[in-house]
Amino acid sequence: MTSSIGLVHELLDRAANERPDKWALRDSSGRWRYRELAGQSIGYSRVLACRGIQRGDRVVSITRASREAAALFYAASRIGAAFVPLHPNMKSYQLLPVLNRIDPKLIVTGPETSVEDLHETGFELLGKDDLASHAAKVLDQHDGWEPGEVTVGDTAAVIHTSGSTSIPKGVVCPHAQMTFAATELAARLGYRADDVVFCRFPMSWDYGLYKNLMCTAAMAELVLADGSDDLSLLRLIQECQATIVPIVPSLATMLTRLARRQSRKPLHVRMFTNTGSELTRATIEELEHTFPACTVIPQYGQTEAKRITVMPGGMASDKPGSVGLPLRGTRLRIRRGDGSTADPGEVGEITVAGPNVMVGYWRDPESTARTFRKEGDPECTWLYTGDYGWLDEDGFLYFSGRRDDLFKRRDIRMSAVEIEAALMDVPGVRAAAVLPPTDERDLAMVVEGDLEKPEVLVGLRQRLDLAKIPPICVIVERLPLNAHGKVDKVAAEIFLKDGGE
C-alpha cells in the first residue's frame, strides 16, 4: 500500500497488475477478478468519453452498490470526471436540488431507481445495463484510445452528507485525499489480501464507497450487500466467509440477535469496524461473545475528512467510550468557544487538519468558509466538525455528540448521545432516539424494544442521574433507519407526535 499512488484508478491498476486473478468484487448477480474490474472500468471510461464527458464533469450514479457502480467510479477517475453516488431512495425534494447544483453530464440509473422525476430534469440518463452493453462494444472499436491528464488535485468524487434536517451538502473529495485515507485506513486496520469484507452500506455513504478503495488498496475481496434482506445478513456473512464486517450500532444489534438463534458460530469474522454512533460496552461484549474470533474497532470520522480517529486493535476495553487515536499526519484539536485549545478532559468542538481533510462543499462557498478554515499556515485547512468531544492525557478522543445533541435542561448540560448510550445498555432496547427539549415539549425518547415504559425508566435510573431521564417516552415496534443505517430522527419526531404526551 504505497503512498506514491495518488489517483483513485491507480489503486485498481496496481491490484490488476500484481494480482490479476485475485477476486475483487462480489454482488448478488456475480463476481469479478481484479483484471475483470479493471477491464470493465476501462470500457466504461471509453463510453463516458464517447458521450462527451471530460475532465471536471460530473457523473451521477443513482443505483445500489454493485460491481457496475464500482467500475463506474474507477472509470470516472480515469478521465478526470467526478463520481457522484446518490441513494436511489433519496426523496424528490432533496434529489432535485442536489442534481441542479451538481449539474451532471450523465446520470446512470438502475432497476431500483425511480426515473419519473429524472426525465423532467433534462439531464442525460443511461441505464446500468445499457452502460455495460455499450462498454463491451466500445472496447472493440477504440483499441488505441487513451484518457487525458488527471491530477491528484482533481475532484474524484462528490459525496453528500446525510441531509437528515436539510438539503444534503456535497463534499468535494480530491484524488489525493481519497487515496491517502483509503491506503492509511487499510494499513491502520490491517486489511489483508486474504480478507473478505462484507459491506451492507450504500456507495452514496462514504462508509460504503471507501470500502471499494480500501479493499483495492489491500487487494482484498469486497462483498456488496446493499439492499439485502435483514434476515439474510448472517447467512450471507457465513456463505461468503467474511472476515471483516463494517457496522453501525443498529446493524450490530441485528447481527447479534440473529446469531443468538443459531447454534453455529461464524468463527471466520476477525474484525468489526464501527462508525456513525458509539457502540456501548454491552454491544461490544455481545459481539465478541457471538463472534469469538473478532476484534471490535471503534472509529470516528465525517465525510468532510473521511476517517479522523481509529481505536488501536484490542484497546477498546482499555479505553471504554473512546473512538481512538488520529490517523498518521492528522492533527486533532479540541477548541473552546473562543477558539482556544481545551485542556485534557474538557469538552469542546472537535477540529482537525491533515491530508485527509477535504476541500469544501460543492458550489456552497458560505458553508465552506464556515467549516473549512485557513488558520496560520495558508496551506493548512482546519475542519470545524460541529461535533463535540474531549481528549484524555494519552491523546485518545471521546465523542460527546453533535452541536444539536448538546443542550441544557434545568440548568444542567447534557448530551443526547449519552442518554442514547444508556438506553442501548438497557436489556430489551434494540434502538433509541433521544430528542432534545423544544419550546413545545420536554426532553423525549422514542424506543424500539420488547419492554414497557416503566421498565425503560427503571433501566435508566440505574444508569443516569434523574435529571437526565426524559419524562416523555414512546415505545414503538420499529424505528426507521436512514440510508446510512442510523436511526432517522425526523421519523422519530413523527412517532413522538403520534404517540407522545
Question: Alpha-carbon distance between the termini?
Answer: 56 Å
CATH-level-2 architecture of the largest domain = 3-Layer(aba) Sandwich
Q: Write down the Rg.
A: 23 Å
Discrete helix count: 15
CATH fourth-tier homologous superfamily of the largest domain: ANL, N-terminal domain
Stretches where pLDDT is under 50 for at least 5 consecutive residues are: none
The assigned structural class equals: alpha/beta
Global shape: globular
The overall strand count is 25
The tally of structural domains comes to: 3
Mean model confidence by pLDDT: 90
Strand content: 25-35%
CATH topology of the largest domain: Rossmann fold
* Proportion in helices: 25-40%
**Largest sheet properties:** 10 strands, mixed
CATH class of the largest domain: Alpha Beta
Pfam families: AMP-binding
Domain AMP-dependent synthetase/ligase: 12-362
InterPro entries: AMP-bd_C_sf, AMP-binding_CS, AMP-dep_synth/lig_dom, ANL_N_sf, ATP-dep_AMP-bd_enzyme
Organism: Actinomadura meridiana
Describe the structure.
This protein is of the alpha/beta class. It has 3 domains: 8-228, Rossmann fold (3-Layer(aba) Sandwich), CATH 3.40.50.12780; 271-402, Roll (Luciferase, domain 3), CATH 2.30.38; 421-499, GMP Synthetase, Chain A, domain 3, CATH 3.30.300. 33% of the residues lie in helices and 25% in strands. The chain has helices at 8-18, 34-50, 67-79, 92-102, 116-119, 128-141, 175-189, 206-218, 233-239, 249-260, 281-290, 365-371, 416-424, 453-461, 489-499; strands spanning 23-27, 30-33, 58-62, 82-85, 106-109, 125-127, 155-160, 170-174, 196-199, 221-224, 244-247, 271-274, 295-302, 306-310, 322-326, 331-335, 348-353, 372-374, 381-391, 397-402, 406-409, 412-415, 429-435, 444-449, 472-476. Strands 11, 12, 13, 14, 15, 16, 17, 18, 19 and 20 form a 10-stranded mixed β-sheet that branches. Strands 2-1-10-9 form a 4-stranded mixed β-sheet. Strands 4-3-5-6 form a 4-stranded parallel β-sheet. Helix 8 links the parallel strand 9 (196-199) and strand 10 (221-224). It starts with 7 loop residues before the first helix and ends with a helix. The mean pLDDT is 90. InterPro entries: AMP-bd_C_sf, AMP-binding_CS, AMP-dep_synth/lig_dom, ANL_N_sf, ATP-dep_AMP-bd_enzyme. This is Class I adenylate-forming enzyme family protein. It comes from Actinomadura meridiana. Residues 12-362 form the AMP-dependent synthetase/ligase domain.
